[in-house]
Specification:
Layout lengths: L1 E7 L7 H15 L3 E6 L3 H5 L3 E4 L35 H11 L4 E6 L1 H12 L4 E5 L15 H22 L2 E6 L6 H9 L4 E3 L7 H13 L5 E6 L5 H4 L3 H10 L5 H13 L3 E4 L12 H19 L5 E6 L2 E6 H4 L11 H8 L7
Bound molecules: 6-O-phosphono-beta-D-fructofuranose.
The site of 6-O-phosphono-beta-D-fructofuranose has 11 residues, from loops.
């Protein structure tokens, strides 16, 4: 008998269900006896013992379904070792619930924060296997996270739609793309959507270079300019500030996000009409694209293989198209960022795309 716990934590994304289905199907097909316990709403379910037993029917028909059948929540790693509002030791509660159910392991699906807590639980002696989910694609140790390609598709369609209206009206348009502190999503959607200017956190921008790129387009007779701006994009000036000073400056910033700030600066410097579109959480929603369905299914079945072999303490990822296991201790706490000198950046620049640098 193998007793497996499962949870999805942090911001959701496409293909979470496909990944859990992959784990479950492979376990039900390849092991004689399996019990799967799904903890609800992320680590919260494990802390407060909120779970349900799942059978093979629960995993049927969910390959194409967005969201997560278990629900998710954010349980920040920063405060995971602090007592909750009733004085409960959250880490101890998670351990006790794991032992009470006599679990052989926990399969945890999540992004960066989730991996830090997963690694802490591993250090505390629990058997942990993780799967890399996030539309940001910022997890160290894997070339790709599931959810990312689906989000690229959605952000690209947003840029495609803006293109036609931008052309009709001869305006400057900014599409703000998610991605937290990294630019993978913006870079890929921006290139796929034919953006003229791409701004990512890893390459701080200079507003005058952005204006220069817009003016250059006007000079060559282009009636419009499309900017794909990462929600984490930062100016050269702000990038020089300490974390504390930047926080203070942001408090006084009247703009709801970096895109609106850039829009106001472009209007001021060029007199051109600027519109901002924020697709926001639509980028995390809906059905996973075929690539993510396959990736999540592969990662899930490989996680099942680790369970069968009783190999714990790994994240299952993908490297050079092959599924690999990476020690959790190596993954936790590290961000995978776009290198400013990466070939994809150079290629984008050769296409004439400005990064505002
Ligand atoms: O990490 C995934 C992500 O969608 C980021 O791209 C974004 O910054 C963040 O989550 C949004 O978080 P929330 O759903 O808590 O607003």
């Amino acid at each position: 008998m193998r007793r497996i716990g499962m949870l999805t934590s942090g911001g959701d994304c496409q293909a979470l269900n496909a990944a859990m289905r992959g784990v479950a199907k492979a376990c039900f097909n390849c092991l004689d006896e399996v019990e799967i316990y799904g903890f609800l709403d992320g680590y919260r379910g494990l802390i407060y013992g909120n779970f349900k037993m799942l059978n093979s029917r629960d995993f049927s028909g969910i390959l194409t379904k967005g969201g997560t059948i278990l629900g998710s929540s954010r349980t920040p790693f920063k405060t995971i070792q602090d007592p909750d509002e009733n004085g409960l030791d959250k880490v101890e509660e998670m351990k006790q619930n794991y032992y009470k159910l006599k679990l052989d392991c926990m399969v945890i699906l999540g992004g960066n924060g989730t991996h830090k807590t997963a690694n802490l639980l591993r250090e505390q002696g629990l058997n942990i296997i993780t799967l890399p989910k996030t539309i940001d694609n910022d997890l160290y140790g894997t070339d790709m996270t599931f959810g990312f390609q689906s989000a690229v598709d959605i952000a690209t369609s947003a840029i495609d739609c803006i293109h036609t209206t931008a052309a009709s009206h001869g305006r400057v348009f900014i599409i703000e793309v998610m991605g937290h502190k990294v630019g993978w999503l913006t870079l890929n959607a921006g290139m796929a959507g034919g953006a003229d200017i791409i701004l990512i956190p890893e390459i701080p921008y200079d507003i005058d270079k952005i204006v220069e790129a817009i003016n250059q387009r006007n000079k060559f007779g282009s009636r419009f300019t499309i900017l794909a701006v990462a929600e984490g994009a930062i100016s050269k000036e702000d990038a020089k500030l300490s974390k504390k000073d930047l926080k203070e400056k942001m408090k006084k910033n009247p703009h709801p996000s970096v895109s609106y700030e850039i829009a106001a600066q472009i209007l001021e410097k060029t007199g051109q009409e600027v519109r901002v579109t924020v697709p926001g959480h639509t980028q995390r929603g809906g059905s996973p694209c075929p690539y993510d369905r396959v990736l999540a299914s592969r990662l899930g079945t490989e996680a099942a293989k680790l369970i069968m072999n009783e190999e714990y303490g790994y994240m299952v990822g993908i490297k050079n198209r092959e599924i690999v296991k990476v020690p959790l201790a190596e993954v936790a706490g590290k961000l995978k960022m776009v290198a400013p000198d990466a070939s994809i950046v150079e290629e984008a620049k050769m296409l004439g795309i400005s990064f505002g640098d």
